[in-house]
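Working notes for the structural subgroup meeting. M.R. asked for a predicted model of this chain before we commit to crystallization trials. I am recording the input and output together here so anyone reviewing the notebook later can reproduce the run.

Input as submitted:
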Amino acid sequence: MTPFNFHLRPRELPPELDRLRSEVRAFLAHELAAGSYRREPAGWDQYNAEFSRKVGARGWIGMTWPREYGGHERTSLERYVVTEELLAAGAPVRAHWGADRQFGPLLLGTGTEEQKRLYLPRIAAGECFHCVGLSEPDSGSDLSSIRTKAIKVDGGWRIEGRKVWTSYAHKAHVMNLFARTSPRSESNRHAGVTQFLVDMSLPDITVRPIYNLAGDHDFNEVTFDGLFIRDGMVLGKVDHGWAQMTGQLAHERSGPERWLGTYGLLVHLVDQVGPEVKTGDAEKIGRLVSSVWTLHQMSFAIAAMIGRGVSPDVESALVKDLGNCYDQDVPAVAREIIPEELRAQLASENRLNPMLDRALYYGPAYTIRGGTKEMLRGTIARSLGLR
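Returned structure, recorded in token form:
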């Protein structure tokens, strides 16, 4: 069996991390007082281009990237501290989130010089937002079954197909598109897929909204009708899209966004019960708080591993699985402590109700985004020799 490679934080961290945490908190307190944002039920999952530009101006996007591409060459632990503070405060960082978390590192690892210089400085400035064209009708996130085709033509590729559940495609500047460039092979189902960089302002792209259960518009259906993409916008190697994507998973799955989605609800729950909380309710809340601390320790350790050049695929799968379950536990406990009859008596301005409602609406999705729990547990099981 392969043991999990978690190494918890050392007893004494570099003092610059504490200074940086204080700096981020001061920035957030100022922005909150200025009214540029407030803690909403959506938490960090709010699209606010102006706020993203402010974060970029502070040097908090692309923190670990080379300076020549707009980055700041800071450590993965420094990036983690900034990330955790922004998310815990419910700051609206969704606009730049995916590009900072995984698209930028992907470009650094596989992009051409032209591609890096075209996108990375704008991303770091909080001025370029991205989406991922992966899921399709009848295939979900199963990359081996996608049907969108890229057909080789003179000077580039012609794209035909359709993507669904594409988050914020209606606001993104660029898409990381996965398309089939070679027939599917039964011996290697993930072969024959290529990644492309798609300028979302190009013609022959149709974006239609998909409204979710909460009435929000973040998902979209994106149709490509003969879209031409020049050769220079192939990302990495042709037919190697799957191998390139797997390198992103540790970045996508291990961050604090995987267990801070319902943190705002926890804060409001603690405020609601007050200091005179019943013993049984205090125990339930205590378990939630101890889980937050444990997930923080694990996630922080993964950031340190990434900083050392380790690829913690299994560890990140474990954190995401635990974090997703935790984000479903918080609203469940909130409903136990404040049942429906008590919720009905809360004043209309009390924000616990909208916080809880959103957590309940979005709860089922937590175990799908970034990999289903079945896929995650399969990864963990293989590392333990159980599959």
